[in-house]
Amino acid sequence: MISRRLFLTGTAAAATASAVALTYSAQGASASAATCEIALENKSLPGKVNAYVTGHEQGTNRWVLLRADGSVYHP
């Protein structure tokens, strides 16, 4: 069983910018890119880190969720 201290330490580490490094690269600053690249890297405790990637679609303002396989889901 995980201790409360370890859980809180892991939660705090996951919430910091150093825990998960996001790399975002777009094709151009003047035009909206059709896609972007996101790389998640676990620099905290060993083991698995869950990430939820969400956003709004430009033009329609609908919610967009990214699935584990990289496909897009519109709820």
From TrEMBL:
Molecular function as annotated in GO: hydrolase activity
The keyword Iron is annotated on this UniProt entry: no
Keywords assigned: Hydrolase, Signal
Signal sequence annotation: 1-21
InterPro entries: TAT_signal
Official protein name in the record: Sugar hydrolase
